[in-house]
Amino acid sequence: MSKLVTIYGGSGFVGRYIARRMAKEGWRVRVAVRKPNEAIFVKPYGVVGQVEPIFCNIRDDASVREVMQGADAVVNCVGILNETGKNTFDALQNEGAERIARIANELGVEKMLHVSAIGADRDSKSDYARTKALGEEAILRHMPNAVILRPSIVFGPEDGFFNRFASMAMMGPVLPVVGAATRFQPVYVDDVAKAGVIGLTGQVKSGIYELGGPEILTFRELMQEMLGVIRRRRLIVNVPFWAARIMAFGFDMLQKISFGLFTNGMITRDQVKNLRKDNVVSEGAMTFADLGIVPTALEAVLPDYLWRFRPSGQYSDIKDSAKNLKV
Length: 327
Hints:
Elements: E1 4-8, H1 13-24, E2 28-33, E3 51-55, H2 61-68, E4 73-76, H3 89-107, E5 111-115, H4 127-142, E6 147-151, E7 154-155, H5 162-169, E8 174-178, E9 183-184, E10 187-188, H6 189-201, E11 207-211, E12 217-218, H7 219-230, E13 235-239, H8 241-257, H9 269-274, H10 302-306, H11 316-323
């Protein structure tokens, strides 16, 4: 009988790629999510009945335990960029991660993979980075043989980074960014998934792996790369951190006083704190190289999904070709 993996947050951006790759490896995949009816798209990743979305609330012991029954491996991909209601950084990224690892230990699960983020630091002023680090510590306390992945900013067709800024670039001549000089090492989402599968099925050392792509670029340079792909000229304006804090405070307060009717998807005060620090692989860290993976470059992937933001969309290449015709 094939082995079973439970993936918490398996319908999210990174989780769905891990689910697809695990299904290709012949595993049965249980995708544990808060809204299974919105995760039906994972079912075709395998044969009939191989990949199944199932309800789970990682804030509840009984819920986590139920979907883990019989699993040979567990994956935790749950993470948030903005707190809403009871879904706080501590509740999900610290306590939720600890709960999954503790129950996995109790049930005798063989393998655990956890997706964290570069910049995880228990002493960070950012609640996001602090709780990421606390979650890692809790996992290694309960599951010392776990593999933890810390990717830099992740890109791919469903990403919320390049798609978001490409959409903004369609609205006006100016593209505002916070932390234009902050450096990133963008990593392709399927490379992260490949690393996850190797971490679960291969003979690799347990511990923390920091994952970054082949290029280290500033926020401004990333925007220039994106604008080149979508063939638009925009003025990239750096928003000073002091101004960003004021803006973020306003958006955060609007979310609070609206009781969740407005969700701050613009920028939060916590994100401003994170943007002050470079998001690149640390010197001496275990990386893709230790997993035998050669990371994919931005230019190999961005055109495949950002073409729709070009002035002529899917017809851009045809129009460019037509310019070369001689009448």
